[in-house]
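TASK: fixed-backbone design
INPUT:
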């Protein structure tokens, strides 16, 4: 079992760990956000076409039997 620390020590430890974090710059956040939107758009377009092809194929297949 881990030793208990008092709240003051805990806050000091948290501050020490937060100070080690390398925060991204505004430019890095902006570029990453734009890339996420681009990838989401490309994924949506890809699945739209896959859905379209499957739907068209199934309609053609069912048209043969209907």
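OUTPUT:
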């Amino acid at each position: 079992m881990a030793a208990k620390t008092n709240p003051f020590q805990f806050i000091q430890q948290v501050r020490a760990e937060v100070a080690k974090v390398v925060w991204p710059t505004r430019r890095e956040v902006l570029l990453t956000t734009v890339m996420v939107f681009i990838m989401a758009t490309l994924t949506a377009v890809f699945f739209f076409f896959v859905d379209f092809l499957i739907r068209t194929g199934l309609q053609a297949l069912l048209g043969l039997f209907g």
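COMMENT: The radius of gyration is 26 Å.
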